[in-house]
Amino acid sequence: MKKIGLIGGITWQSTQLYYQLLNTKVAEILGGSSSCECLIDSVNFAEISEKQSKGDWDSLHEKMADIALRLQNAGAEVILICANTMHLSVPVIEQKIAVPVLHIAEVAGEAVKAKGCKKVLLLGTKYTMELDFYKDILKNQFQIEVLIPSKEDREVVHEVIYKELSKGIITEASKNKYLDIISKAAKEGAQGVILGCTEIPLLIQQKDCSIAVIDTTMEHAYAAVKFALA
Q1: Which one of 3, 20, 71, 191 counts the least CB within 10 Å of its CB?
Q2: How many CB atoms lie under 10 A from the CB of residue 47?
Q3: Ordered structural domains, the chain, with CATH
Q4: Could you tell me if 106 and 90 are in contact, meaning their C-beta atoms sit under 8 angstroms apart?
Q5: Is 87:103 a contact under the CB 8 Å cutoff?
Q6: Considering the entire predicted model, what is its pTM?
Q7: Residue 198: what pLDDT?
C-alpha cells in the first residue's frame, strides 16, 4: 500500500470525512482489520481563508508546496489536497515535489464521464466557480460543458460554505437554497452537478437531487485508494 499524504484543515470537517472515506474504502477492499496508510498535515483555516479573501494566492501556493514537500519527505507517495479551491496551487506544488498530486478536477471529470453527463453545474467557492483552473480541465480534458450559477447565486453558495459548512453548521434553509440553484441549472439542461467544494456533501446528497450528483470528496478519496493499492 502506498502512503497517502493529505493536506488538510481546509476545512477540518472535510478532512475528517476524507479520513473516514479512505479507511472505509481500504477496509472494504482488503477486508479484515485493514486501514489506510496516510499522513495528515493540517493547516489553520483562518489563515488560509484570510489570504484567499485578499487574493494572496502566491503566498498560498508557496505554503501548499512547502506542506506537500514536507509530506513527501515524511514518506508520502501521493499527495491529496483536501479542498477543491487549493488545487489552484498544483502547478507550483508539482515544481517542488517528485511524487504525484491527485488532481480533484481530473477525478471529477472522470466521474462525470462515467455518469454519461455532458453538461454539468459546478458548485464551490466563488474562486472555484469563477476562476478557470477547474473549468478548463473539465472542458479541455473531458469535453464537458460547465455551467456556473448567477452572480447572486454564487454569493449564496460561497457564503454558506464559509459561514456555515466550514464551521460544521448544517441548515435546512441553506440546503433548500442550494437545491433551488441546482433546479435552475437542470432547467438549463444540466445533467449533473459537481459538488466542487469538499464541504458541500455535508449538505447535499444524491437522494436530494433529480440530476446526477458528483461528490468530489468521495470520488477523490476513492481515487486515492485505487492509486495506493495499485
Answers
A1: 20
A2: 13
A3: 4-103+219-229 (3.40.50.1860), 104-215 (3.40.50.1860)
A4: no
A5: yes
A6: 0.91
A7: 83
Could you identify the residue written with the cell 460543458?
145
CB 220, CB 104: distance < 8 Å: yes
Cα 118 to Cα 74: distance, rounded to the nearest angstrom: 40
Long-range contacts of residues 167-172, Cβ cutoff 8 Å, at least 24 apart: 167/13, 168/13, 168/202, 170/202, 170/203
Give the model confidence (pLDDT) of 123-178 as tens digits.
Answer: 999 999 999 999 999 999 999 999 999 999 999 999 999 899 988 899 999 999 99
Task: Region of 55 please: left (phi>0), alpha (psi -120 to 50) or beta.
Answer: left
- Indicate the residue type of 67: I
Per-residue burial over 12-45, b if 16 or more Cβ lie within 10 Å, else e, is bbbbebbbebbbebbeeeeeeeeebebbbbebeb
For residue 189 the three cell numbers come to 439542461
